[in-house]
Structure formats: structure tokens, C-alpha cells
Amino acid sequence: MSKIAIVTDSTSGLSDQELAEMGNAFQVHFEVQMNGHFFHEGIDITDAEFYQELASSKELPTTAPPSIQEMFDFYDQVKAKGFDEIISIHITSGITGFYNNLQAALKDYDHIKVHAVDSFLSIQPMGYLVKYASQLAKVGESSSEILEKIDQQKRTIGEYFIVDDLKNLVHGGRLTNAAAFTGSLLRIKPVLTMMNDEHKIVATDKIRTMKRALHFIEDEFEDVRQKTDYQLRIFLTGTNNLEAMEAWKKRLSVKYPQLNIEIGQIGPVIGAHLGSNAYVLGWSKEVIDK
After folding, report:
1. Are 29 and 66 in contact (CB under 8 A)?
2. CATH code 3.30.1180.10 region(s) in the chain
3. Alpha carbon 148 to chain centroid, angstroms
4. For domain 4-30+65-154, which CATH number applies: 3.30.70.890, 3.40.50.10170, 3.40.50.970, 3.40.50.300?
5. At what angle do helices 143-154 and 123-138 cross, to 10 degrees?
6. Are the CB atoms for 175 and 203 separated by under 8 Å?
7. Which of 10, 107, 173, 277 has the fewest beta carbons closer than 10 A?
8. Exposure b/e, 194-231, CB count within 10 A at least 16 = b
9. Which CATH number applies to 158-285?
């Protein structure tokens, strides 16, 4: 039976403690460049330090994934720990070319068998996918069985999110239909999603005030929940607004006492594109009961 490792990247939002508890999951780190300095997410800069610097930065930050050679070196390190195969789960190809480039390059890497997976998203739902894959590997599922189950699982993922200011997304070219919002960025709170075939960020609605926008995405989630025949897990995450996430969880826990609700904060790489005070409501099928 193969000993299978799970590799992911720092946009998953997984902490060192969570990775250590899994025991068979490992994480590479994306970079963010700001004010002429490079930082490895989760290593060289904390979330609080990043958002503090972002608030006073004259230039918008840029981000970069590990190089292909860095990925190969990392896989070598995982192999040296005694693993026979790797399932490598990463940020959606809808907003970065990292997954596609990695998939193409793997044909030239034969030190250990690597199965690359496009998560269709990032942040907490991707972290949950990693936890699920880790659990499956630890109970002895084969790589083909794990890949089939996580493919099914990632197709249950959905999300809506709201940013306080579109300038970061527009500047970085991550918003597909940015032209539709030109001239009204300061007057609206756009509702965004990646629930489309290409998993790109698309604005779906224009709503005045954050309060109304939050109620809108909650109603959208409720519509999904009522049409779903399995238990859902809710992910509430934001940028530099943990207290707001805690209050949001408290309110939704009253409405959904039967659902597990996770809260979290988005790190520098995704935060560089969303800016401060973004709100994300995500969900996926419940497969880990804790």
C-alpha cells in the first residue's frame, strides 16, 4: 500500500498546527511583493503586519507562486520523509496560471508520482479539501480513490464574497467583468463569485451598503441549502476583520444550529487582491465531523 502525502499552498489558510496535526500534509508558500520587499506568506510576514502595511502602501502589492524548480525540490523533500505518492492540491487555475504550469511541468518530473489537483478555489474551502484528502490517505485509500472523492467534494464548493473596494481586483486583472463596474466603484458593494465553468472571479450583482450585500449573499446561500440533499459546512472568512467574522458566525449559528460554521482570516496573497474588510461566505459538503 502506497504511503500518500498531501501537498498544498499557503493560500489554503492552513496553520502550522493544523498541518502538524494531519501529519501527512505539507505546504509551500506563495510570495507577496510590497513596497519593494518580498515576503513569503506565513513565514516572513504576519497577516496583521501585511494589512497594516497595505493601508499605507503607495503601490498595490503583487503576488507570485513558487517556481517549478522550487516545487520539484519540495516534492523531493516530501519523498525523503518516506512517502510514495503525492496529491498536490492548489489554488484555482481561474485566477493564476500556477496549476496549469505545474501540471505541464510534471511530465518531466519522475522522482515521485505527483497528482496535481485544481481546487477550483482557495482559502478555507481548499483547506477543508486538504484535510479531507489527508483523512482519506490515513485510512488507506488509494490515490485513485482519493482523487475521485476530492473531485466529487470540490464540486460541492460554492462561495460569494464582497469587497470593500474593487481597486485591488481591477488593478490585478482578477475581475473578469470589471468594465461593467467602472465609474461606480465607490457607490456600491459588488457581489462576486467564482461559481462558473472557468472558476474566474465575476461580479454578479451591485448592491448599496455592506449590510444589504451580506443579507443578499446569505439569502443566496439559503437558496442553495434548501436545494441540497446533504449536510453543508459554512466557511466565513474575511480580510483584517476577525471580530466581524465572529459576530457573523454568532448570528448565523442562531439560524443554522445544525451546521458547522468555521471562521477565519485571509492571508496576504489573496488579501493583496481583495483588500481589507472583504467578506466571504463559502460552503461545501460536510465530510469531516468536527
Report:
1. yes
2. 158-285
3. 20
4. 3.40.50.10170
5. 150
6. yes
7. 107
8. beeeebbbbbebebeeeeebbebbbebbeeeeeeeeee
9. 3.30.1180.10
Residue 276, Ramachandran bin (φ over 0: left; ψ between -120 and 50: alpha; else beta): beta
User: In a structure prediction context, what are the per-residue pLDDT tens digits for the chain, which is 290 residues long?
Assistant: 789 999 999 999 999 999 999 999 999 999 999 888 899 998 999 999 999 988 888 888 899 999 999 999 999 999 999 999 999 999 999 889 999 999 999 999 999 999 999 999 999 999 999 999 999 999 999 999 999 999 999 999 999 999 887 665 555 444 554 444 544 455 678 888 988 888 888 888 888 889 999 999 999 999 999 999 999 999 999 999 999 999 999 999 999 999 999 999 999 999 988 888 999 999 999 998 66
Give the length of the chain: 290
Q: Residue 127 corresponds to which cell in the numbers above?
A: 483547506
The three grid cell numbers given for residue 255, joined into one nine-digit string: 439560524
Q: What pTM, to 2 d.p., does this model score?
A: 0.91
Q: Which positions ≥6 away from 111 have C-beta within 8 Å? A: 72, 75, 76, 79
> Could you tell me the three cell numbers for 153?
467534494
